[in-house]
Task: structure prediction
Amino acid sequence: MRELRGKAVADALKEKMKAFLERIDEADRPQLAIVRVGERPDDLAYERTVLKNCGLIGLPVRVEALKDDVTTDELLERIRQLNEDDAVRGILVFRPLPDSIDEQAVIRAVAMEKDVDCMNPQNLQCLMVSDRRAIAPCTPEAVMRILEYYGVELEGKNVVIVNRSTVIGRPLSVMLLEKNATVTVCHSRTRNLAEITSRADIVITGVGRARFFGPEYFNENSVVIDIGINFDENGACGDVDDKTVADGVAAITPVPGGVGTVTSSVLLSHVLPEAFR
Ligand code: NAP
Result:
């Protein structure tokens, strides 16, 4: 069994971005703007991670920290200013926003080309019609980056995704179709799930249930991408019961250390699309 570790994929992305930024004077570098409302511990922890990752590649970050009694109009005005600021090339709004804020209005206000977290539905619309301007959601793109990095061929392959959410399964199905895979999307009402997944070349799981998938869901040639992040008595684990499955498949992403490890680098890559052309 081959372990498809995320670190190598994330490091390769970071290297490319770092090399790209080193060629630009610090004052002229594109910036990421973080918009944070209030001081939720989750947001502060995420902010520290993003700041650390930006520091590693030399990407300047601006944090717009707003009080949690900010109004929707004030927040929209701040987003409008960031949209118009040429130095800012990516805007990341931490969610969930307080109940008092019209989150949908905020999401839709972020300029499509600066929407690095693919919150604005306009980006999903573009993805659907193969518009090159689309910024893909980070987790599906992390999956695609892992498959590409490890040379997993997609053309003509049967790929089963067990997730139909708007942030994972739906956009991922479109991205895989773009690569000429034959895609099946499964969900909680799918019948005979193990029969479907065990016939696939590639199985991508995102059900959010600790160690749900045992050996009966796979075959010895399966490539398994485990998106799930769950917790059991031993700490973080995926949707796949890696202890019983690992020896019976061709390749698998670990949890932790798989898809999640790549996601944050993908987000930064959306600020610097030129680094990947
Ligand atoms: P979600 O909206 O709850 O979606 C879960 C999907 O799994 C749904 O499509 C659901 O089907 C399906 N499902 C649930 N139980 C099932 C079952 N018994 N059999 C078949 N399908 C089943 O969650 P999400 O936001 O997409 O996230 C999914 C997982 O990915 C979570 O564990 C989350 O922590 C993880 N995640 C990881 C990353 C990363 O970077 N690695 C990023 C985001 C999320 P229905 O549609 O029928 O309900």
Remarks:
- The first strand starts at residue 2 and ends at 3.
- The pocket of NAP is lined by residues 139, 162-165, 167-169, 186-190, 193, 206-209, 227-230, 259-260, 263 (CB under 6 Å).
- Residues 138-259 form a domain with the Rossmann fold fold (CATH 3.40.50.720).
- The mean pLDDT is 97.
